[in-house]
Amino acid sequence: MNGSLAKAWVSLGVVALLASGLLAILVTGAKMPGVKHLADVEFIRWCLVVHVNLATLVWFTALPVGLLHLSTKVRGTFSTQLSWAGFLLALIGMLLLFSVPPQEGVRPILSNYIPVLSHPRYSIGIAVYLAGIALGLLSPKFFVDSFSIAKRWPGLLEIRFGLFVGSTFIGLAIVTLALAFKDLASVPLISEFRFFELGMWGGGHLIQHASAVFTVCAWVLFLSRRVDQPILSRSELFVVFGWIGLPIFFVPVILFFDVTGGDYRQGFTWLMQWGIAPPIVFFLGRALWRLSPRLSDLKNHEIVAFFLSASLLLMGFVFGAFIRGPDMRVPGHYHASIGAVTLAFMALGYLLLADRAESRWMLKSMWFYGVGQAVFAGGMFLAGSFGMPRKTYGAEHVFTHWGQGLGVAVMAIGGMGALIGGILFAVAIIPRLKSTAPLAGKVAHV
């Protein structure tokens, strides 16, 4: 196994998450009564752009690459060098995201999934980062299949197909982004926002699809460690991952559509709607039937992470069904969904780095972040239900109904809880980033 490479990628993702959390404090504060008028709108939007890309681009892709390296061996010296080159490119790309400070002439472009700053260096940073991810995924490897690994990591062998499916989604996302911007470069008189909105649409959807796959992989590891054996068999998980992976066969067809047309946009939306929720609900039903929950699980941070993550994802599914326009119900939906992935990845990151399975800081972190994120997303959904528009900050953020103010107040309470959870996670994880012990050999059973 590639312990050093795996730890490097996991550490990169964790650092990105912690940095995004700091920026999230400023973004959330810019919606709060009594504080919002003090905020500079353009600076807050700069924070939002960098925050989103650290939280849903870097964090959501670096950690899975680390898990993939843990589960594989590289083929020879050249492959190892290629993997390290990918990591260095990803690190340079992430640093470039901070290299464009908020300044006159640099406009935040709030495109969905992957927002950008209107500066060539920022776009280059995203491209360099994705190139590093591509190398990290494509460097020749073979899966580890040994009794010792299966014993130390129950469930790891069973999720191999899931790792392949998730990696394929990330690879397709990178290809989709490249082809979209190639096509858009020849479209005359297209606005800057529409250029990036259309360009990021397909690839952004596929990255979220990959995140759902890797979240299920994390759940399998948590639950398998709880019962000390794979929670589901390979054949059962093949059905789950195969179902989630079905959109892979439709993506090449959608790529032939006009990137500026409605069929292209609706195609990726349809794949997400039908390719994620049904198989995840099926998995949860099968897994919970096998788990037999007990009261002591409330003291196991991995099982708490699973239950809260699953609850957030189901909340996201429900919120998504009630979206009727560009109001705060939209971020309520995706903050519940993104929170579900983040919570699972937080526990997974700790599992990959920790020298002990349990930590009182991690347990508290899971509860604060999970419950806080649920309340945060619920507040957004409530405010949006009363017509509060999205993507407004500072003085432009005007309440027109008491329900909007109530929703924002609920959102503030939840945001504070999630912030405390993030701080506790930092307390738990930062000492692990300094450890030099071999990654795979440090993890004990629960």
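^ that was protein a. below is b, sequence first then the tokens
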Amino acid sequence: MDAYDIVIIGAGPGGYTGAIRMAQLGFKTAVIEKDKTFGGTCLNVGCIPSKALLQSSELYYEASHDFADHGIKIESVKLDLEKMMARKTKIVGELTGGIEFLFKKNKITGIKGMARIVDANTIEITDANGIKVNIQAKNIVIATGSTPVELPFLKFDEKKILSSTGALALDFVPKEMLVVGGGIIGLEMASVWARLGSKVTVVEFADKICAMMDQDAVSVLQRSMKKTGVSFMTSTKVTASRSVGGRVELDYESLTDGKKASIQGDVVLVATGRKPFTDGLGLENVQIKKDERGRIQTNAHYQTNVPNIFAIGDVIVGPMLAHKAEEEGVAVGEFLATGFCHVNYATVPSVIYTHPEVSSVGMTEAEAKAAGIEIAVGKFPFAANGRAKAKGNTEGFVKIITDKATDRIIGGHIVCAGSSEMLGEIVVAMEFGGSSEDLARSFHSHPTMSEAIREAALAVDKRQRQG
């Protein structure tokens, strides 16, 4: 029976990143993956393919609507959806293949099959042919990620009722698309298909979309998405569905006045959240404890109630984000090597990869006030930024939130084209306990979009120099 120092179940971002660090630290490491390719949801049917389609659809929309403003005339812009999807698939293939290369480079054993924990040191693996083998592990890390939440009256068939996986693989542009759920996944997929020509309606149970993010920034995004033909129904509960003439009809109820009605679409994307994937892992064999939401309970070192079994990523408490899982995977390796580890959850960034992008780190104004923190806020619009004007991307702003008593930055929010690439500056400043004054005194090349960060930092003390 093969034996390892560490066996990780799941080859998503948390699993493969953690495995590389563990191997670097000298541990004999194996990773078990139930799917045909490594990379988990993120690389195969999540982060990467969605960003490929967001990029392609944005270029298509710009060519169709915005190029003329730059003096570029195109008589007819045509969509080749098959080629667009082929490009997405090629990118996914290159990156998943890259993980196999990294495993070989770092002498990590990659195993394909379904894992089941037999006892605290034994894992049974069932391969695609049903053949079972056992391996031994001094330590086990559960990094199995999450799956889309399915509604009882909207069961996924990936043809008419879509999860995010199905929405990334459509072979036609729906005339009308309904999106149930106004969170990050729903908005990103709504953006893709609206740009390609769908009439998209987003139905959201809450009274606002993306309620967890800065609402000033979300308002900018919502206005922009409406311009591309996306409509929004908030405070709305979907109650039933049926097939009508090859289309899907949803019944809904307004939570504000109780009125009931129905709406039809060619397809429905259900984007109401994700849940931890722990089915079939044999957790009951070792009495692993879970909370009321099905998440595995861990301590500060990611240990479960069984000390040599750890859990990271989407299966534990916290935002279901690839970069969060990556840091936790690394932390487990470092804990096993040194007895110490730390992940700073106050600086976990979150991004909606739409156009414009909404990027956030730390607290919103509402969260800071609810925590009883007296804050100072600096805000600067891209409409007053020279590079933004030159690029034709003047929507949005930078907002920096500080603790008024110390000037330490406790939150940063950027809404603009490409804001995800700009947010890192604020994340680094927060990681070092930086202040708005630190950002305000730092050089920023002129002209750049990032100058707006400096101006927002100056605006905390009402010292902005532009706009």
